[in-house]
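User: Sequence in, structure out. Go.
Assistant: Echoing your sequence, followed by the structure tokens.
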Amino acid sequence: MEKESSGMILVSVIVPVYNAGKYLPACLDSIINQHLQEIEIIVVDDGSTDDSGQIADRYAAKDSRIRVVHQENAHLSAARNAGMQVAKGEYIAFIDSDDWIESDMFSSMYEVALREEADVVISGVTVEFTKENRVHLDKIGEEYTERDQMNFYSLFVQLSELCLFNYACNKLYRTRILKDRMLIFEIEAPFEDISFNLQVLKEIGTVSIVPGAYYHYIRRGEITILSSYRAGFLEAHKQKEEVLQSFFYHFEVDKALSDDYLKRMKVSDYCIYLHSLYWQNANLSRKERLRILHVEFFSSSKLKNIVRETAIEDIYQKMFRNLLLYASPWFAEFFYSCLFFFRYRMEFLYRRFRMLIIH
């Protein structure tokens, strides 16, 4: 039976989709069955080549709250922006098409938004590692609302440490502020969320954080934005760095603190970029990897100095640091080729290795 919209839209839910046909039904079902029914669901089919577009159209035919936007492939940021252009709700939410949400997510978050007159509401996240049969909760202990902009930098640090800031999908954003300030996703993956949230935090007055981990972020071990090679990664890193510098300047953050943050970020991002050279979708030859290792890593005295001065956060960064400072591009190429052969050809042992690191 076709569902009818009541006319009042409290939350516009934007779902960008690209070739996620096997996961999209579960995602849309979790949104349709929200306790808060006064929503619109804007599915942006970003040039999918699988059946994602047809699935979205079938759902739209059964539920008048669903609208489907079909466009040529323009990537995640553009898909989200296309959804924002047509959103009519009081708040906007973003849900990734291969994830799902609990039925009380929007009712719980909207209730807090209404009570606290919050411009942004942030929830916890349930991270599901399906291949490791493991669940991790990123959340706070109790509800909290911050109204003093002078404390927003501290809030940013706290939420970053809890792994709650970088997501866009665990938040409600007041639509009027996004549209009045013309806030859009300007940087491509994998830094689009943090850059967007930094811009938003400069423009709002009230942030509420709730303890519920309603959003289920599914890590399936497949090739995703977070585990895929992107030729423009370092350019996106540079753009994110500029957004952060503007953010630190806006909130008058002590230079020593901001410099330390930027250095730690650079080490983390470059470590991720180096790993991405060996991910399954990279399709780079050994010659191409050696060139990138030489030009972007081993020839950069600035990067080496930053790595030398910065505290190492995990075993992957420790390996990265030792290879960069004490080895050569050729040895690094050999080491990471072996490591990722182990990663993809002996996955069971790799998973055991990861579990040992975690524990």
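User: And one key feature?
Assistant: Residues 254-358 form one domain.
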